[in-house]
Amino acid sequence: MSNILSDRKYTNDHEWAKQTGSSVDIGITAYAVDQLGDITLVNLDVKEGDTVEAGKAFGTIESVKTLSDLFAPVAGKITRINKDLESKPELVNADCYAAWMVSIEPAAGSSLDGLLDS
To answer: Could you tell me the sign of the dihedral formed by the alpha carbons of 18, 24, 95, 70, in that order?
Structure first.
């Protein structure tokens, strides 16, 4: 699984960001999933209403191979959390592009412009 979708932006740390209305959904790429192996835990250290800084960790993802930080590609306020991942982290392996982790309402001046395209 190494497909790259053209409707998203990407970070060097292998997160993807997809603009959905006024918010940005965040997840990890197929490459990241391939490198991590079977996902066993998604730990999100934020809750709805929290603010995050671009480039700072908002949680971790654990696999049979390793533990990795999850980094916010934009600064802003957490508007939604994918609570399904708490009990079903394997959803990330099944379809990493559908298994978004958090949704962020970008802060003023924060945008996806500096991220990589497909």
So the answer is: positive
- The pTM of the full predicted model, rounded to 2 decimals, is 0.91
Q: Return the structure tokens found at 99.
A: 């298994």
Identify the burial level of 104 via C-beta atoms within 10 angstroms of its C-beta, where 0-12 means exposed, 13-18 middle and 19 or more buried.
buried
Q: DSSP state, 107?
A: P
Our measurement of the distance from residue 6's CA atom to the centroid of its chain's CA atoms, rounded to an integer in Å, reads: 16
Beta bridge partners of 70: 59
For the stretch 8-39, pLDDT in tens is: 999 999 999 999 999 999 999 999 999 999 99
Amino acid making up residue 110: S
DSSP states along 13-76: TSEEEEEETTEEEEEE-HHHHHHH-SEEEEEE---TT-EE-TTSEEEEEEESS-EEEEE-SS-E
